[in-house]
Specification:
The chain is mainly alpha-helical and 45 residues long. It has one domain. It has two helices and no strands. This is 5303_t:CDS:1.
Length: 45
């Protein structure tokens, strides 16, 4: 369908899509973990 609209259109590869989604998910999880750790008072590692 997209090729009929624009013959030069090349959709992103599965790798590109998966990497972008994975990178966004990792960033979201890291942000959530950091927010929880900042609120801790007695943190023992």
């Amino acid at each position: 369908m997209f090729k009929t609209l624009n013959i030069e259109y090349k959709p992103p590869s599965q790798f590109t899509l998966a990497k972008r989604i994975l990178d966004e998910k990792i960033a979201k999880v890291k942000k959530s973990i950091n927010a929880e750790l900042e609120d801790e008072i007695n943190l023992i590692l």
